[in-house]
Design a protein that fits this description.
InterPro entries: IspD/TarI, IspD/TarI_cytidylyltransf_bact, ISPD_synthase_CS, Nucleotide-diphossugar_trans. The protein is α/β, with parallel strands linked by helices. The protein is built from four helices and ten strands; from the N terminus they run βββαβαβαβαββββ. The protein folds into two domains: 127 residues, Spore Coat Polysaccharide Biosynthesis Protein SpsA, Chain A, CATH 3.90.550.10; 44 residues, no CATH class.
Length: 191
């Protein structure tokens, strides 16, 4: 199985002075954590990482020990400053050159550095079970609201079969508070 790890983000919105993927979390870069999660899944044979063009050697050095530690090839290529999609396209070009027999490519983002290896395994299992496209998901725990410019925030949409729970009243009189979660049978994703 081949994976592309997009890591060409600048880190501007994060307020970082370096590319986002090189920002440390508890002393380990997001890049290394994300790559380690993919490799620890045991299902990845070839990993292509897209990096900012001027940081390819730095990213390669950051990941060098990971590639040497096992039978997985780790390849760092220049990504695109334009968009994540453009970086994925450059990663796919590298995949086609290095692994022309690849039929399935996983795309992961270094910003999702704490994705457990078990999630990667479940995604691959779903692909191998015949699903053409798979997206990992987490159960929704937040209340989903609709926001409309003219009307403001509406109560959570009520759907037949949803679970509902009343919350303690803490708003002005006349304001109804409803907490709802969608019926999970309507969700189609790997959890």
């Amino acid at each position: 199985m081949v994976a592309i790890l997009t890591a060409a983000g600048s880190g501007t919105r994060l307020g970082a002075q370096c590319p986002k993927a090189l920002v440390p979390l508890a002393g380990v870069s997001l890049l290394r954590r994300a790559a380690r999660g993919l490799l620890d899944s045991g299902v990845i044979d070839h990993l292509v990482v897209t990096a900012p063009a001027d940081q390819v050697p730095v990213f390669a050095a950051e990941l060098d020990a990971l590639g040497q530690a096992g039978a997985v090839t780790v390849q760092v290529v220049a990504g695109s400053p334009r968009s994540r999609q453009a970086s994925v396209a450059l990663g796919l070009t590298a995949v086609l050159k290095a692994c022309p027999q690849a039929q399935v490519v996983l795309v992961h983002d270094a910003a999702r550095a704490l994705t457990p290896p078990a999630v990667i395994q479940r995604v691959v299992a779903a692909v191998r079970a015949g699903h053409g496209a798979v997206v990992p998901a987490l159960p929704v725990t937040d209340t989903v609201k609709e926001v409309r410019a003219a009307e403001g925030v509406s109560p959570a949409p009520a759907q037949a079969g949803e679970d509902r729970a009343a919350t303690q009243r803490c708003a002005d009189d006349g304001v109804e508070q409803v907490v709802a979660t969608p019926d999970r049978t309507r969700l189609r994703a790997v959890q």
